[in-house]
Design brief:
InterPro entries: Churchill_sf (IPR038543), Transcrpt_activator_Churchill (IPR009508). GO terms for molecular function: zinc ion binding. The protein has no helices and 5 strands. Strand 2 and strand 3 form a beta hairpin. The protein is mostly beta strands.
Length: about 110
């Protein structure tokens, strides 16, 4: 992973978890070939581990195949919630939790 290719290392993305794609606003350009072009995705792999889906891939410079960052995205269901996480030098870090129920118990307001 190359810290010279990004503006900020592991920016906080709140609850924006990307399963694929690249956060190009954080991309300065390739530190190896000094070009600022598209970022390709390579070595994408998906595995299931104890009910958790893990997606990993590399962000790679289109021109010289320099590896910019390693992206990891996870998805799991815990109790009544879908849990998402993302960790990537380029795309940042984020986590999100969404209820699988029609009405999220965390969003209800007390009646009294």
């Amino acid at each position: 992973m190359c810290t010279d290719c990004v503006q900020k290392e592991y920016p906080d993305r709140g609850n924006t978890c990307l399963e694929s794609g690249s956060y190009l606003m954080n991309y300065v350009g390739c530190a190896k070939c000094h070009q600022r072009d598209f970022v390709l995705i390579s070595n994408k792999a998906t595995e299931d581990e104890d009910g958790e889906e893990i997606v990993t891939y590399d962000h790679v410079c289109k021109n010289c195949d320099h590896i910019i960052a390693r992206h990891e995205y996870t998805f799991s269901v815990v109790d009544d919630y879908q849990e998402y996480t993302m960790l990537c030098l380029l795309c940042g870090k984020a986590e999100d939790s969404i209820s699988v129920l029609p009405d999220d118990p965390r969003q209800t307001t007390p009646l009294f």
